[in-house]
Amino acid sequence: MTLLRKISLGYFVALMIAAALNYIPGLTDDQGLAFGIFALDIFDDALHAASALWALIAGLTSHRASKIFLTVFGALYLGDGTLGLITGSGYLDFGIFNNGVLDLPFGFKIMANLPHIALGGIALLSSRFLDNR
Predict the structure, then answer these.
(1) 110-126 pLDDT per residue, tens
(2) In 3-state terms, what secondary structure has residue 123?
(3) Cα–Cα distance between 38 and 109 in angstroms, integer?
(4) What is the pTM of this model?
(5) Distance, CA of 52 to CA of 26 (rounded, Å)
(6) Which residues of 52-78 are buried (b: 16+ CB within 10 A; e: fewer)?
(7) Tag placement on the chain: N or C end, fewer CB within 10 Å?
(8) Cβ distance 37 to 112 under 8 Å?
């Protein structure tokens, strides 16, 4: 099994954890905020679960499928996190379309969008620099 396939399987685990955050007692506060920072709704849960399934299929299928997953997923999530950092709303959960630009404190924007920026950036870097079979 190649390194990119293993990384894709790692993304499956990470994304399933993200999809499950709302359903683990103690991780959300009284206002429904995960870790007291961001609210995850059914669109976020569906996005994370679908991304996890894609990562699993890619990791189990082939090196090429994993490279495609890491490249496309990475670009989509990094772009979403970057847009969220700039505007307060991302596009993957339709937030930019439903909520528009939000006037949020910059520190909050960093904390809320760091997971997508990190996941997307690591996926892109992995697909580019760790592609040695």
Answers:
(1) 988 999 999 999 999 99
(2) helix
(3) 10
(4) 0.88
(5) 23
(6) bebbbebbeeebebbbbbbbebbebbb
(7) C
(8) yes
Instruction: Provide the domain count of the chain.
Output: 1
**pLDDT, tens only, 66-112:** 999 999 999 999 999 999 999 999 999 888 998 899 998 999 899 88
Looking up tokens 């359903």 gives: 23
What's the mean pLDDT when you consider all of the chain? 90
**pLDDT for position 94:** 85
Domain boundaries, position 45: 3-129
Quote the CA–CA distance of 22 and 57 in Å, as a whole number.
24
For 18, 68, 92, 94, the CA distances from 97, given in Å and listed in that order, are 23, 27, 10, 5
Segments in 1-133 forming alpha helices (H):
3-20, 42-61, 63-87, 95-98, 106-129
